[in-house]
């Protein structure tokens, strides 16, 4: 949906005059692209899926929509905004209050983990129009009947992809069960993986989809062929490419299990956080490896095609074909794992003189000519110049012990804790849980989880990788 430039003025919208006057006093004159494309639908009370990055103006988009239809005289919870972290919830609540200044007596209440529970109960007893909170704490208040959503008209999921990464899928489903089916639902996400589509289908009704492209990004995949002499030069080529481009996440495809182990071991020997993934791994080892890679505490995953099927990996910087794929279709599946979510992907394929016939077949199959490149002319360092940004911590308890993602977030962000923005993916199984934490907070996170209590009890904790 293209919006003429003249319609970027907030005054062109069917907004409460008090909101328009306040926008002018705040210096908000023209809408950002996400606001211009989304707000007309939002004001028509339509469900909306908006894909836009932080800083695009998305908070004002849903804030203006919910404030425009709020009935101030009905002192009931009419809007719920869910955010992945306490820091974001605080920012969103502040922005809503700022935009609501022209309308008197609107009460916005934040409900987040990592802070005392009791005072929140007291605040809820006094009532609110708008709740902004994190899924774990909101779900807990609903379960304990402190919060009533019977009068809800608007649900907002802000940074929905991040909430799902942090393991809040079940909490979101539980929360939705407490609210009326007839409501407006707005979902904002920087990326749109399959799991976002799945939750949208369950909780939304005929949503309008809006996507604002990042003008500075290129969604194409840069694919380059590099000729090597033998197996030893393949390993050197991999190291040169990793050293030159310093990708945060790399998936290397090998044709056999033996080769995945050998390549991973060789990279580990020179300092890379690398792991092999193949069919001979036990399920526990496979789960741990994937958790560490998803959390970016393993920077290189070396896999066979069969083992890599069904991997839910986003933001993959580079794919390296250690050997040319044995089947033409497989090559396309391999390189298609990079260049997602609006980012520019990089695919590198190594080949020998014997592979030239296979390369020609691939070019005919794909109806394109590959770029032939020269390997970087740089000196191989003894240690990699890039270290994984995260550590992964294993907790010896899960769903069977009533452990939830919100409990883990609360334990980490509690008194003198780490910022919620520094927590990565959280996965909770029946008897285990994995959480990723920024490397600089790894020691503090480990101490908080091992020395503190979760659900009133202690669990065994160990640091896996990173």
UniProtKB/TrEMBL annotation:
The keyword 4Fe-4S does not apply. A motif (Q motif) lies at residues 8-36. It comes from the Bacteria. Its EC number is 3.6.4.13. Residues 220-382 form the Helicase C-terminal domain. It is an enzyme of class 3 (hydrolase). InterPro entries: DbpA/CsdA_RNA-bd_dom, DEAD/DEAH_box_helicase_dom, DEAD/DEAH_RhlB, DEAD_box_RNA_helicase, Helicase_ATP-bd, Helicase_C-like, Nucleotide-bd_a/b_plait_sf, P-loop_NTPase. The keyword Nucleotide-binding applies. Belongs to the DEAD box helicase family. This is ATP-dependent RNA helicase DbpA. It comes from SAR92 clade bacterium H455.
């Amino acid at each position: 949906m293209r919006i003429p430039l003249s319609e970027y003025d907030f005054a062109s919208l069917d907004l409460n005059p008090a909101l328009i006057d306040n926008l002018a006093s705040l210096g908000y004159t023209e809408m950002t692209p996400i606001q211009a494309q989304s707000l007309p639908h939002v004001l028509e009370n339509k469900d909306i899926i908006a894909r836009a990055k932080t800083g695009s103006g998305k908070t004002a988009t849903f804030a203006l929509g919910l404030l425009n239809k709020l009935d101030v005289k009905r002192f009931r919870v009419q809007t719920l905004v869910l955010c992945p972290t306490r820091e974001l919830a605080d920012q969103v609540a502040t922005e809503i209050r700022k935009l609501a200044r022209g309308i008197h007596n609107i009460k916005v209440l934040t409900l987040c983990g990592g802070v005392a529970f009791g005072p929140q109960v007291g605040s809820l007893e006094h009532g609110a129009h708008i709740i902004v909170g994190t899924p774990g704490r909101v779900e807990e208040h609903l379960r304990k009947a402190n919060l009533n959503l019977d009068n809800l008209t608007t649900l907002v999921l802000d940074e929905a992809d991040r909430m799902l990464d942090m393991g809040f899928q079940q909490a979101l489903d539980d929360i939705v069960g407490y609210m009326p089916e007839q409501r407006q639902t707005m979902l904002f996400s920087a990326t749109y993986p399959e799991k976002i589509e799945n939750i949208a289908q369950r909780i939304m009704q005929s949503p309008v989809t809006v996507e604002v492209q990042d003008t500075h990004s290129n969604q194409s995949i840069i694919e380059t062929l590099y000729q090597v002499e033998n197996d030893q030069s393949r390993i050197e080529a991999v190291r040169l490419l990793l050293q030159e481009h310093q990708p945060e996440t790399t998936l290397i495809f090998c044709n056999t299990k033996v080769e995945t182990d050998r390549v991973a071991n060789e990279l580990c020997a020179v300092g890379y956080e690398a792991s092999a993934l193949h069919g001979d791994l036990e399920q526990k080892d496979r789960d741990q490896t994937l958790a560490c890679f998803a959390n970016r505490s393993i920077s290189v995953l070396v896999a066979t095609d069969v083992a890599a099927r069904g991997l839910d990996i986003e933001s993959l910087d580079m794919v390296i074909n250690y050997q040319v794929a044995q089947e033409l279709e497989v090559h396309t599946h391999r390189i298609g794992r990079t260049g997602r979510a609006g980012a520019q992907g990089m695919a590198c394929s190594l080949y020998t003189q014997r592979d030239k016939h296979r390369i020609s077949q691939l070019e005919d199959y794909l109806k394109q000519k590959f770029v032939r490149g020269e390997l970087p002319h740089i000196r191989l360092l003894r240690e990699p110049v890039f270290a994984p940004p995260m550590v992964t911590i294993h907790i010896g308890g899960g769903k069977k012990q009533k452990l939830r993602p919100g409990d883990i977030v609360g334990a980490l962000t509690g008194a003198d804790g780490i910022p919620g923005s520094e927590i990565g993916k959280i996965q909770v199984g029946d008897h285990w849980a994995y959480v990723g934490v920024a490397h600089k907070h790894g020691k503090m996170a480990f101490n908080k989880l091992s020395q503190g209590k979760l659900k009133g009890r202690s669990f065994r904790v160990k640091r896996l990788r990173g």
